[in-house]
Amino acid sequence: MQKKTLLKFILLPFGIALLFAGLFFDSSTADSAMVQAETTPTPDRLAEPTLPASPSQGDRGAQVYWLSCMPCHGDKGQGLTDEFRATYPSEEEYCWESGCHGANPYESGFTLPKKIPAVIGPEALGKFSDAAQLNAYVRAVMPFWKPGSLTEEEAWRVTAFILRENDLWDDKTELAASNAASVKIPRGTLTPVVTPQQAEGQSGSGVPVWVIGLGILMLLLLLMFVLKKSQNTTKI
Predict the structure, then answer these.
(1) What tens digit of pLDDT does each residue of 203-224 get?
(2) Alpha-carbon distance 234 to 228, whole Å?
(3) How far apart are CA 134 and CA 142, in angstroms?
(4) Residue 236 falls inside a structural domain
(5) C-alpha angle 148/150/155, rounded to 5°?
(6) How many other C-beta atoms are found inside a 10 Å radius of the C-beta of residue 71?
(7) Does the residue 7 lie in any domain?
């Protein structure tokens, strides 16, 4: 009996010690996980891409894309989607409705199309047959608000970046006029690319289609009324 009592006195403190040790361990682990979750920063999708120690042509092209292409074509080349626009400040989500990018922009503004195509993804580059055509287009009409403002080097860099992101260029060598025609782009469903001139034509006077249709209908009704009145006058 004394041995059992002695054994209880030995085991009881030992068990309590183990219990407290377990609680302490679990609590510290949970606290550590919570602290880690709180300190993990949320990636900034609109932040400038950083260059690696030895940047390639495509790496430098990523910075050109960020500065001159991303505002319209998206941070992932997805185009001006609703999801991407949601990353903008609320007052800029529908910038084509504002004075600087609407149908009648300010002097320093420009008309922005409502639909801007993707440049990265399946069939995104179906308009072009090779890298030379893509580069020529970039040089001639991009960026949208200031066509032809990219230097030759910047245009080749962003061309290399776009091709790399579409798995059409390994980015191990420099893309240039000497080899661009040999970099083929699969011809898929053609995606219309809107130029600044086309965007101005699309915007027109800014009058909604339904207003024009209503005006035509009213003219037809007026014409019918005049004809009917003319017929009645003739009968009399």
Answers:
(1) 444 555 556 767 777 777 777 7
(2) 10
(3) 11
(4) no
(5) 110
(6) 20
(7) no
Residues of the domain holding 94: 57-210
Question: What is the tally of structural domains in the chain?
Answer: 1
The predicted-structure confidence for 57-83, as pLDDT tens digits, reads as follows 999 999 999 999 998 899 999 998 889
For the question of whether the overall pTM of this predicted structure is more than 0.90, the answer is no
Those residues whose C-beta lies under 8 Å from the C-beta of residue 109, and which sit 6 or more positions away, are 99, 100, 101
DSSP character for 184? B
Name the nearest CA neighbour of 60 among 194, 144, 159, 127.
Answer: 159
Q: CATH number for the domain including 129?
A: 1.10.760.10
Q: Is 74 inside any structural domain?
A: yes
Q: Give me the percent of the chain exceeding a pLDDT of 70.
A: 60
C-alpha–C-alpha distance, residues 223 and 215, integer Å: 12
Contact 116, 194 (CB under 8 A): yes
- Residue ranges, the chain, pLDDT below 50: 3, 6-8, 10-11, 14, 19-21, 23-27, 189-191, 202-205
Half-sphere exposure of 34 (CA within 13 A, CB side): 6
| 226 within a domain of the structure (yes/no) | no
